[in-house]
Write a structure and sequence with these properties.
Shape: globular
Strand content: under 5%
Number of helices: 12
Radius of gyration: 22 Å
Helix content: over 70%
CATH superfamily of the largest domain: Tetracycline Repressor, domain 2
Order of helices and strands: HHHHHHHHHHHH
Largest sheet: none
Number of domains: 2
Structural class: mainly alpha
Oligomer: single chain
Length: 226
């Protein structure tokens, strides 16, 4: 008699014929495994079989859920970028005071990147070869009324109004956006350099981020004062 295989170790097989329901847990495991392999190997160097082994599933399931490696790569990118992009667009394009928008974006960026430190390197690397992916997400956001053009137009009007009132320096919204995002992302993108040059690693990096989360909104706001 064959020894039963533990369900915790048995790989998931192809869905039963005629099945239409997608297993959300399996899909999440595949996406997480793909992200790990893509970060480790780069999308071009990753193999579907390696992703399947990382996820603990049959390779046929990858094709069932995502059709191809390109489809899987697009899904991983969308999942990664969606952690920040939609909320940042909504926040910066909202009618909240500019100071409130700055604080919210800084806190959101730092909180998400602390939890997912691979995001800056992964997203920037993917965009180097597949810029159309962020364009597609921007089109979807535009269709929902939260696109980057709408956000920049609203932000530009608000910055100009504050400058006309003598409350802020006049700044183009594109410059404002790049300054804000760069100041949030740079410590994560440059973490190896910071660890080597100023010993910002491990607990020291966490303490640095706590201080930066508290101090950066005020720094940016003061830089806008006339």
């Amino acid at each position: 008699m064959k020894t039963p295989v533990s369900t915790s170790r048995r790989k998931a097989g192809r869905p039963k014929q005629g099945a239409t329901a997608r297993d959300g847990d399996t899909e999440r495991r595949i996406l997480e495994a793909a992200r790990v392999i893509f970060v480790r190997r780069g999308t071009a160097g990753a193999r579907m079989q390696e992703i399947a082994e990382e996820a603990g599933v049959n390779a046929a399931l990858l094709h069932y859920y995502f059709k191809s490696k390109d489809g899987l790569a697009q899904a991983v990118f969308r999942e990664a970028a969606s952690r920040i992009l939609p909320e940042v667009l909504r926040t910066l394009g909202s009618d909240a005071p500019i100071e409130t928008r700055i604080e919210h974006v800084v806190h959101r960026y730092i909180d998400v990147l602390r939890e997912h430190p691979f995001l800056p390197g992964y997203v920037l690397g993917e965009l180097s070869f597949h810029p159309e992916r962020i364009v597609a997400m921007a089109h979807e956001a535009t269709a929902q009324g939260n696109g980057p053009r709408e956000m920049l137009a609203r932000l530009g009007r608000d910055l100009a109004a504050r400058a006309a009132a003598g409350e802020m320096q006049l700044m183009m919204p594109e410059q404002f956006l790049v300054n804000l995002v760069s100041l949030c992302v740079f410590p994560f993108a440059a973490r190896p350099m910071l660890a080597a040059l100023v010993n910002l690693d491990g607990p020291a990096f966490d303490l640095f981020l706590e201080a930066r989360r508290a101090e950066l909104p005020g720094f940016i706001i003061r830089a806008l004062r006339p």
